[in-house]
Each structure stands twice: as C-alpha cells, then as structure tokens.
Amino acid sequence: MMLFLLLSVLNSQAFTLISTGNVGWQTSTLTFNVDTTCNNYLGAVNAAMNSAISLWTNAPTANLTLAIGSTVTFSGTLSQYVGTSATLVAPAGNPTIICSTTFSTDTGIAANSGIPGVAGAFNISSGRIQGGLLVLNVQSGDNANITTMNSTVVAVIVAHEMGHILGLGHSGDTSALMYYDASAKNVLSLGQDDVDGISFLYPRQEPRDKVFGCATIENINSGSGGGTSLPLLFEFVLLLTIIRLGIRNAKT
Amino acid sequence: MIDPSLASEKKLILGVGLLSQNFSRVSGGVSGNPGLGTIYPEVHLSYDLFIGAGYSLSPWVLYTPMLRISRDGGDTTNVLALALRLKKDLSSSLSANLGVGEFIYRMYGPGGTTTLNNGNSTATFALPSGSVASTLFTVNTGFGFAFSETWRTDLDMMVVNLFSAKRAFNAVLSVGYGIL
User: Fold this and answer.
1) Any idea what the CATH number is for the domain that residue B101 is in?
2) Which of B82, B136, B139 minimises the CB distance to A206?
3) pLDDT tens digits, one per residue of B26-56
4) What residues contact A199, with CB distance under 8 A and at least 6 apart?
5) If you count DSSP H runs as helices and E runs as strands, how many of each does chain A have, helices first?
6) What pLDDT, on a 0 to 100 scale, did the predictor assign at position B113?
7) Nearest CA to A144 among A152, A154, A129?
8) Residue A64 backbone phi and psi in degrees, to 5
9) Which of A24, A237, B123, B146 shows a CA-CA span of 20 to 30 A to B9?
10) Tens-digit pLDDT profile for residues B119-137
C-alpha cells in the first residue's frame, strides 16, 4: 500500500509556465472584461466565467482574487493579437474575453480543428504579465463552437484558458485542468499540479494575506515567495520552549 | 490484552504516516472528480505537557522528508507544519485535541524548458525556477488511540482558510512511538 502510494506520488508531472522568468501579474486581484462580441452569448459566457473565476480564486494555497469586469469594445484587429506566434503583443490592461464568429480567420486555426478557444498572456515585462486575451470559438458550423457544448465543458475550457492568461503553461498530468486535452473532464476542478502552479505564481502568505482566508486580498503580490513570517518564528520558539520545559519537568 | 492504564505514559512521541494535502479537494483523475488528495509520507514529533484535569499542551511539528518529485523533475514540493494543540484525555487510551498552527507549503523548480502537447502540435513551456512558499494558519483537530505505553495511532486534520471558500483539509494518518 505504502509502495503504491509512493509510486503514485513520484509519478506526478510538473506544471509549466508560459515563458521563462514569468512570475505572473503584478497584482493578485485581476478583473476579466468581456467584449461586446459576447453580447449574444452572455448567459453562457458569464456562467462559465463565474465558475472559472471561483475555481482559481479558491485555490487553497494561492493568493488570487479574480472578478468579472465591465463590457468593453476590443480595439484593433483580432488576428493582429492572436495566433501561433509568441511574439504577438496584446494591449496592456485587464484581460479581455472575446467571442469570435470568424474564429478560424481570426486565429489562423483551421475550421473544425476541435479548438474551442485560445488564450495568451502578453506584453510581458520583467517577468510580469500586463495583458491577456481569451478568444472563444462561436463560429457557426464549427465542431468546437462553444454554444453547442454543455455548460460544464464550456466552464472547463474557460478555466483552462484563464490559466494561460494567469501565466500557466500546459501540464503533462492528465488530472490537471492545464492538461492540453480537456475533453475527458466532466467535473470542473483543479488538480494538485494546477494548485502548485498558481501557488508558485501567487503564493498565499498569511498573515499578510489575512488569516484563515477571512477577507479578500488587497496586497500586491511580491512574487518572491519563501519569506519567513514573524508569527512563524514566534510559534517555533514557543514550541521549543514548551518542549524544553516539558523535558525539564520530566527529569525532576 | 494490553493494559490501557499503561497508555500515554510516554510524552515525547515520534510518528510516521501519510499526509493527504487538499483531501477530497483536488482532481483525482482525468475526469476531474475529487480524489484522496495529494499523498506525502510524513514524520512528526509531539510532546505532551500535562497541565491538569486530563488536559495537556501538545506542540507538534510535521515534515515531509521525501519531496514530492515530478517525473520530469520539473518541480518538487514539501510540507512543514507546526501546531500548538490542547489535548484532552477522553479515557486511558483515547484522546482528542484542538489547536492552531501553521502550514508551510514549499515549491521548488530547477528552471529550463519542456516540450508538451499543445493540441494539434507541440510547444515549449518554461519549467518553474527557484523556490516559493505559501504559508497558511491552520485550525488543528484530531483523535489519538494508545495501544500500549509506547505505541499509538492518530488521525489529525489541519484546516486552512477556515472561514472562506478556499477552505481545504489536510489529513494525517500516523503511527507514533513514545521515546521519552
């Protein structure tokens, strides 16, 4: 039993990041705007976004608060920003979600490729992401048009693409949300690999981030991580003192 | 039959067992259904300082000596947990505890890149580089059963983010040996 558990532990895969040196967004409170192209699909898009936002926000060891923002009108030509080249640059600011009725043209992905959405984090400076786009496929007749999918599948897709915007790359772990193929998922959930990845980029450090998860987070994520808090030191000294007193009492 | 009156004589306990991080919270398979959490072998040390009326203060330190290492070496993680618990002897062999503590979850990465499937092609992604820790306060609770003067088993729970939807349970099932 122990050997089986150890082997299952050792067989886990690693999360990845979208680029070397990436340390996520500067802020740990991030708002996703919705483009007016999604107006005809707001019910489905908002439901999926709410589920995805809740999922990432509630990662236990991460310090991240996501929200849905206002409806905006995306400026520029979509194909200018989304494609297979990593050198493309999106506008700086809150990430935007776009619904594309001409998905194959906009993204350069052939029709009926089974790709329901693409996303990217752009404008990376000093490791910090400063812009993001999520393009959902609503192209009529396409086999990955999200309006033809059930709500859980759409939520999984949106959550996965949000993961990219937050700074995560794909995972080799099949149980992870960030695994490249989400077609087998029928429950929206994070794998430990996803939790590790988002915690690596946005580590939660109480009491800086409010004790016991009592409140939303307002602090800027330092991204450095690994700091030892004063309460931790106090607690450790207290433990050592009590152990020492106990041992002394036991001897006398 | 072991005389239960002999139980709990030893106050300094060294224990080994399994820690389940994010019990029933993270995906346990490809479908996304929750599983048993992420399992680590753990070792812990506790000391019972008797304060009267069947109560004792019990500081507790847990560590996962074997890093959880990903198959491709992309990242490793481990846990250090500290707690100060108030322990109550419910009988000569059974005890319960309640306390507060700290859960430190550290993630390490070697850096570099890896190539993974990207849908209809492959792409190169960056592996994490450096060390980052999440530090969370915990509410601890648990039960213990002493089989003899020196041997016992415990089921402990560390709850993080108790008052929010980020709440998660980290369970420890262990066997302990009284060394003092």
Assistant:
1) 2.40.160.20
2) B136
3) 888 888 888 888 888 999 999 999 888 889 9
4) A59, A61, A62, B105, B107, B132, B134
5) 7, 5
6) 87
7) A154
8) -150, 130
9) A237
10) 777 888 888 888 999 999 9
Quote the CA–CA distance of A96 and A30 in Å, as a whole number: 11
Chain A residues with beta carbon closer than 8 angstroms to that of B73: 14
Which domain covers residue B52, as residue numbers? Answer: 4-70+77-108+135-178
Strands B76-89, B49-52: parallel, antiparallel or unpaired by DSSP?
unpaired
> Token pair for residue A91?
């506008």
Token duo for residue B35: 């599983």
CB contact at 8 A, A208 and A225: no
Query: What's the complex ipTM?
Result: 0.90
Q: Compare CB distances from B33 to A19, A187, A204 and report the shortest one's residue.
A: A187
Peptide bond into B59 cis (omega under 30): no
Q: How many domains, in total, are found in chain B?
A: 1
- Helix A151-166 to helix A192-201 angle (10° resolution) is 40
Domain range spanning residue A20? Answer: 14-201
B60 close to B12: Cβ distance less than 8 angstroms: no
Summarised one tens digit per residue, pLDDT across range A160-199 is 999 999 999 999 888 899 998 888 888 999 999 999 999 9
Residues of A in contact with B132 (CB under 8 A): 199-200, 203, 224-226
> Any chain B CB within 8 A of the CB of A180?
yes
C-beta of residue B37 within 8 angstroms of C-beta of residue B68: no
Residue of chain B with shortest Cα separation from A212:
B161
Kindly state the helix (H) or strand (E) to which residue A88 belongs, with its residue range.
none
- Whether B11 maps to a domain, the answer reads yes
**CATH code at A101?**
3.40.390.10
Q: How many CB atoms lie within 10 A of CB B160?
A: 27
State the Cα–Cα distance between residues A212 and A196, nearest whole angstrom: 19
Whether B31 is in a domain gets the answer: yes
Read off the DSSP letter of residue A220.
B
Segment B158-175, tens digit of pLDDT: 999 998 899 999 999 999
Q: Computed from CA positions of residues A52, A193, B162, A227, in that sequence, does the dihedral angle turn out positive or negative? A: negative
